Structures are given as C-alpha cells and as structure tokens.
Write the structure tokens for this entry.
Amino acid sequence: MKTKLPIEILFTFTFFLFTCAALAEIRFVSTTGSSVPPYTTWATASDSIQKAINICNNGDTVIVANGTFKEALLINKRIALIGMSKDSTIIDGRGMIGLVDTSTTIYLKADCKIENFHLIGKNINEYLLWAMNFLVKVENCLVENARHTFILYGRSSEIKNVIAKNFDRQFVFWTSVNDTNNPVIENCLAYKNRNSSPIIVLEYGGNPIIRSNIFSFDVNSNYGTAIDQWGWINRVTIENNLFYGCNSYSAVTTLVVDSIKIINNTSKKKRKVGNAFWLTYGEKAIIRNNIMTDNEEALYTYYNQANSNYNLYWNNLRNTGGHGTMGQNDIIADPMFVKDTIPIVGSGDFHLQKYSPGIDAGDPSILDIDDSRSDIGFYGGPYGEEYKYLDLAPQPPKGLSGIIDSGLIKLNWGKNTENDFNYYKLFRDTVSSFTADSTSFVLILSDTFYNETYPVKAGKYFYKLTAVDSQRNESLPSDEIGVSLTSLNHNEPLIIQDYKLYQCYPNPFNSSTVIPFRLKEPGYVKINIYDIKGEMVGSVFNGDKNSGYHEVNFIPGINTTGSSKDLASGIYLYSIDVIGKNSIPAFSDIKKMVYLK
C-alpha cells in the first residue's frame, strides 16, 4: 500500500499542541508490515501499532493503515496516532491484556492525539482509554464495548466528533479541586443501550464545556442521566445538545455546582418520568433557550430558584418542581418539531417547522449564527446552524367521536396544537371510506365540536375531518365515524362506531409505538404483545375503556417483563380482546409490527 500525504496534513498530525522534536518522524503501520524498524515508509511499515510506538520520539506521528489490529496499547511518548478511517481502521482490545493496567485497552502516560479509529474495548466491564494528568485529544472515532470509554484526569482534554455505543459510561472527567482547565466534549453522538450509570461524569474542579452533542437512550436503558456532576466544579457550560430518552432520571443532574449555564438544548423524554434538568442549587444557574418536553417535572431545583427564562415547555406533567420556577418569558407551546422520533435510526428531525413558537423567541442577547435573535432549542444560538424552516401540514385530527343527544348528532375531536393551525374542514358522505374532497365538503370549523340536526333522509352518514394551517396546508383526513338513521320519526339514531384495531405508528419502530383502537361500546380491554413463536412477551393495557377512539403506547422494556424484557429486533404481533356487557367477548383482532433495535 503506497500513500502520499500532503505536507500540510503531515504537519497538522505532527504538531499536536506540544513542541515537536526537531527531527520528528512519520511512522507507518500496516497489517502486512514487518517487525523491522524504523517503519518510516509504507514499504517498511510495522505490523504492530505498539512496535511503532516503542521506537517513537516525542513529536512523532504514527499513521495506521486500514485493517484490524488486535492490541492493547501503552502510549508513553508525545505522539499523534492517526488512522485512515473510523470505519476501517480498528484497534480491537477484546481478549488482550493491558500493558500497564490489565483492565485498560489504551493506557496513556504522555500527551497524545488519537484520530480516525474504531476503538473496541476489552469488554463491557473494563476501560477503553485511561489518562492520568495528560493532555488528550480524541477526534473522529467510533468507540464501543467498555465500562468507561474515556477516563481523563485533569488537563484541558478534548473529545470531538466521536460516536459511542455499547458502553456503560462514555466520558469521565476527573480534575483537581483548583483545576482551571477547560475539558471539552463537542459534536459527539452517544447512544446508550445499557442500564445504570450516566454518559458523562464530571468531578472536582475545572470548567467543562459540553457542546453540540446528541445523547440518545434506548428504551431498555432504565438509568437515563446524560450528564451527572458529582463533585465541586468551578463552572459548567452545557449548550446546543439534544437529550433524547433519559428514561428514568434527568438529562442533566448537578449535585454541587451552582455556576452552570444550560443554553439552547432540547430535552425530549420517551416517557414522562424524571426531569430535563435537576439542580441541587439553582441561584447562579442560567437556564436559557431550552426546549423541555414530555417530562414528569421539566426543571427541578432542590434548594433555591434557578434563573430560568426564554425556554419552551411542552407536554410535561409539571413544568417545574421543588424550588424551580418559570421565568417571565418562558412559554408553554408545541415546539412543532419536523419529526420527533428517535434520531439514532435516522428518522427523527428536531428542527423547528416554519411558524414554530420557538423561532426568534430566545434570549435577545443571544444571537443565531445569522445574527438574528436566537431560536429556542439545540439548533439555535451561536453554535447552532442555519436551515430552511419547512412549512408542513398539521397533524390529522385525532379522536373523532360522536353521540346522539336532544335530537342532535354531536361530533367531538381533539384539538390540534400547531402554532399556525387555523381551522378544520368537515366532510360527510353516505358511503364508507369516502374521499374527503369538494364533493363531500360540509363546512369550516374553528372549534373541536360540531352539532348537526338529523338529515332529512334516513340512511347512513359518514364523517371525517382535516386540519388546515394559516398557509392553507391541509392535513390527511382523520379517522372516520358513521351514523345510521333507520327511522327519523320513531327510533333514536345510532352512531356507527364499530370496534377496530388500527395499525400502530410508527411501524417499524425503535423505541416505542402507538397502538390506536376504537370501541363501539364501553368494555374491558386487553392489549398484549406476542412473538412469532406465539409466546406472550408483553402486556400493554388491561382495564376498562369507554366507547370511542383510544391510543396506548407500547414501550419494549416497560411493557415487557422477565426473560422478554430485552426484546430482539423482529416481527411481533399485537392483539386486542374486548369483553363487553355481561362479560361476553365483543371484539378481538391481531396485527403485525416490526421492532428495530
């Protein structure tokens, strides 16, 4: 393998925040190399990364070709260790014995830069990289299979552009009490699929900066703290991060530090348990431009109030708890995400739609990168990004139902929450599954109910709705209900509201899915999950429901128990059984869904 690197790239590799040796060398490593030094060309490359490191001087660079290197490393020289690509240059520590600490795959005893590798730890109960009072920069790496991916004690180390998965904890910064360094974690993706332990632990002094990261939690991970601060820290800045999941606890927990800035973050839970931000002390905390949705309590402070202002709260059981209070310019509104499903599978989009209440609604003293007033959320502020706001149609109206009362057909449905929502369009026809168009249009409505006198002619009548925003974008039609008028003079008409089990959405799904169903009459409902072997693996709902439209959430790991708690990817069945009056079975049905982990 012959490769020529531009002189400016070699210089960048070699000059890594320390004074390079006057005669710094470039060392090469290849899976087809040899054991004969000095490894200064691809033709004479080493067959081992450690062998190349052993003959390095301070300031040298080691360049590693594509391939898998089964090694544990001791880096005791000030070097830059550069791979070709995180997709194809692999350091695999599984089965290896650490050269200093047997539990550690890469042990640093000197300043070092590590770039462009896929790093695999010894096992999930041990350490990937350990550095005690040395300056470390890790960039553009994929890391996995470790209890702790990085243990960094002291110094202004940097972790940037790192993708981490299959770990217990990702980053641990331990710094001295009087440390004035500024460790940085920036533009990383951490996907946590294991129970217990936070992703980031901050301890003892320093001024850590956590910026522009995505912290995502699998639903089976029951401990959901992304950033956990345990000991005294001088100051913490947490900005432009997406916290998705954080299942049972908080996106950010601080036990001691008071001087904390939490700015332009988005925190969305998968279920309403725990907090977005849990602060022991809040008096000096600055909470600005954050979106906090689907929490038990979004902002909680234990001892005193936090300085919360210009944040957006939505769909929380409680917006504040303890001594937490909302600021004068905090708002409660639907943020209007483009699509708020889990980002790890590529289907989520937490950009704001056009006309979102979070656009240009942040702290006026904080500007977006185009110098306009900051948007709220993790795409706003000076570390956000410019993007085009999509003008999307509203969501279809949900929960359309009806009753007969006092000679009127009374329809009701749930209210749309989009900031630019304008009105509803009601459609009616005499055939089921009709098309909602100009031939079936009845009228425009602004409320969530409609009372109609009986039509002149007896027969069947079917209704559905669409939602329209201020730009005349129209949603897909709602579910359909029908009314049967058999005799206008003698018999009370009946709402046609048959039993139905609908397809879950989303499907396929990764973290959770919604199972909709409709009941013709009140009844006792059981919704269960089965694998393709026919074994029941989960119980989603058991209880009474009134007639009408309903939705329940299926969350693997929550609605599953025992040996089925950690469901594998694959096809599953969901069933509904309805017990009606006099304990007589009234309805049952089964549909398929696909779970993707």
